[in-house]
Amino acid sequence: MTEASILLFRACLALLAMPIYLLSFLGMWEPFCKKIFFPFFLEKLFAVHNRKTLKQKQELFRNLPEFTGPSGELKLLEIGTGCGTNFQFYPPGCKVTCTDINPHFQQSLSRSMNQNQHLHYERFLVAAAEDLSQVPSGSVDAAVCTLVLCSVQDINGALKEVLRVLRPGGAFYFLDHVAADHSSWKYFWQQVCYPTWKLVFDGCCLTREIWKNLEQANFSELKLQHISVPLPWTPIKPHIIGYAVK
């Protein structure tokens, strides 16, 4: 009954989103999504998400200065920088390298940079989380990845790259939405929304159990917490937050 219900509701949702499915079939949705819709939507979503997670983010990034390297400078790599909504949480003087697979965030990213001039911005790299080959091995003190692992094609590949670019003793900070408890209605609706959500929101997956990938990665220490972010009328309330040490 549950499987049939999921398929029925999926079909109803697909009918509502039929214009987008049609544009996707014609090869027109993906370029429009990446260039116009997703950067616009993400800036609005991140503004709301930042307000809802303000205290958690402040607490998460509080110990960032402790990972400052031997040079006395904190070299930070942000993976999937997007609109730069995390900049406000980084300590003054931090040297930031930004990466994103989508180069169309420049307008909102420039605004964030102008609003956060307490940081030193090193460079912006167009790169997927699974291929950070432009970043030398062991060259950063901290890596940050928020609301990105839900969309990457290979979570384990992305975590391997994180471990490669971090110096020994460096830290990886993460925050992402994840699958709800399998016995809950939240998980039922995540399954219903999954195909249409992934299409509309540029590959974002609703039912990933990212904590399992983090637990299996070769970090020496993992601090991970499950939280619920109050985002009404969305299937992305369950989150994980924390940091891991190489």
From TrEMBL:
The lineage of its organism: Eukaryota, Metazoa, Chordata, Craniata, Vertebrata. SUPFAM superfamilies: S-adenosyl-L-methionine-dependent methyltransferases. Residues 77-174 form the Methyltransferase type domain. PANTHER family: METHYLTRANSFERASE LIKE 7A (PTHR45036:SF1), METHYLTRANSFERASE LIKE 7B (PTHR45036). CDD domains: AdoMet_MTases. InterPro entries: Methyltransf_11, SAM-dependent_MTases_sf, Thiol_S-MT. The keyword Transmembrane applies. Pfam families: Methyltransf_11 (PF08241). Keywords: Membrane, Transmembrane, Transmembrane helix. One of its GO terms (molecular function) is S-adenosylmethionine-dependent methyltransferase activity. The chain crosses the membrane at residues 7-29. It comes from the Eukaryota. This is MET7A protein.
